[in-house]
Amino acid sequence: MTYCVGVLVEEGLVMVADTRTNAGLDDISTYRKLHHFNVPGERVMMLASAGNLSITQSVLSLLQEGVPGEEDGEPPQKLVEAPTMFQAAQLIGRAIRRVRSIEKDGFEAANIRFSISLLFGGQIGNGEMRLYLIYSAGNFIECSTDAPFLQIGEHKYGKPILDRAVKYTTELYDALKVSLVSMDSTMRSNLGVGLPIDIALARRSALTLEVNHRIEAGEGYFHDLRERWSAALRAAHRAIPRPPYGPSSS
């Protein structure tokens, strides 16, 4: 289980991912799910993953070492060599399909579902900052100004706060704050999502990470955010009038 969220606002991009990997009740581990492919001053790219860990690691290795070309004689291409974000997303899809073609028979024999989904966002040179959700078939969709966030993994618990609080015009660090509240809501409702949490933030056209941080258990700001959000919800509940139903309403 996992939860990752990417928010693309006017000022830049925020990505947040947990680190919990659950292979059974007695096999819970911590693995990084938010990865960076950066060349400061040239490109900043972030990749968050959900799904089968072995598939994810194979795809990441291909992107780092080079994805074989589709045509004979075409050289392998690394993710940091892609000329545009769109072509980089296409390359990630190609890497997924490559891993599927190699591992398909073994997965089917073991009755294991081929499961991977990725959030990929960033900016290359003077191109637009973009955010994609890439599926296990290698196809993808792009984030829009009308819906400026994408999620993978256990997304249903954290989605309501994003729906209500995030707009394209939201300030960048407010987008980070809301993303952390979304993560907290997910952690409270699903034991398969948990600390540490990796966060990354890139300002539009800066072509470098402004924030690259891991939130560990017991960190003061995140503990305070959780307590304040819970208190705010309780206060909002108390401030809403009693429903006008039942015998006492007549």
TrEMBL record:
Q: Gene3D superfamilies recorded for this chain?
A: Glutamine Phosphoribosylpyrophosphate, subunit 1, domain 1
User: Which InterPro entries has this protein been placed in?
Assistant: Ntn_hydrolases_N, UCP009120_prtse
In Swiss-Prot or TrEMBL terms, this protein is called Peptidase
